[in-house]
Amino acid sequence: MDDPYLLADQAADALRSRFGIHRIDVALVLGSGWAQAAEGLGEPVGECPLDELPGFSAPVVAGHGGAMRLVRTASGSLAAIFTGRTHLYEGRGVAPVVHGVRTAAAAGASRLLLTNGCGGIAHPPGVPVLIADHINLTGATPLVGPRFVDLSQVYSPRLRALAQQVDPSLEEGVYCQFHGPSYETPAEVRMAKAIGGTLVGMSTALEAIAAREAGLDVLGISLVTNAAAGTTSNPLSHAEVVEAGRVAQPRLRSLLAGLLERL
Ligand code: 8IG
To answer: Ligand 1: distance of its center to the CA of 5 in Å?
Structure first.
């Protein structure tokens, strides 16, 4: 199987027959720091390890758990929650990175919420940031051939306004996706800042590109877990990173709950 779109169709068929559903409405991808906040959202409909669906492989990073959870939201929508994602730095190529997004689209989803944990250039640790736009610094793209996808509004203005209704104090930022897995050098962070970035991470942009190709409305929210390299004189300790995540949980939880009700 070398056609990623066919593979996504097969994964969507497997998902439908396994859970006896016709379609999903919304997909949610959980990044670092988000898993706890998504616990118990909606009525459970089913769950399976991702590697039991065509085209998904076991996660390389321990703790980046790979499951797909189906829940019925308060508004009656069926949401597929991906509790982990494949990263470009795993070295499997771009297609596996966006397979979940393409599967969600093939299964009928029309809205996608991408979350991540990342470094902050212009936002402090512990704060969720609405992604207004992104800069793809990976040198990669999920698109092959003459697929001239419009990226002038990757992150849906309508969904962003909805998120601002749910949490009016949400900051907005520009997410720079690096290849990883190493973190940035201070010079790379200065570059990201100079070109308009306010967040640095290793996910999301490639998935958002694939989602726009598939016609999904995309919302992206970052949790800043650490100051980007070189932006503070005394670097955060691991304990401070963990603490920033812990403090953010109630806010992330009400954000996700409010969004799943409205998306
Ligand atoms: I969590 O500072 C997390 N993920 N690229 N830089 C990059 N990715 C990250 C960072 C960071 N923190």
So the answer is: 30
Residues in contact with 139: Cβ distance below 8 Å, sequence separation at least 6, in sequence order? 179
Instruction: Kindly report, residue by residue over 136-182, the tens digit of the pLDDT.
Output: 999 999 999 999 999 999 999 999 999 999 999 999 999 999 999 99
Nearest CA to ligand 1 atom 3: 118
Catalytic residues: 184
Tell me the CA–centroid distance for residue 27 and ligand 1, in Å: 23
In the chain the domains, ranked by start, together with CATH numbers, are 4-262 (3.40.50.1580)
Contacts of 241 (CB under 8 A, 6+ apart): 125, 225, 226
Q: For 19-77, what is each residue's pLDDT tens digit?
A: 999 999 999 999 999 999 999 999 999 999 999 999 998 655 555 558 999 999 999 99
Residue spans of beta strands (DSSP E) within 39-160: 43-49, 67-72, 78-82, 111-120, 128-136
Ligand 1 pocket residue status of 96, Cβ below 6 Å: no
Q: Which residues, including other chains, have CB under 8 Å from residue 133's CB and lie 6 or more apart?
A: 154, 155, 174, 175
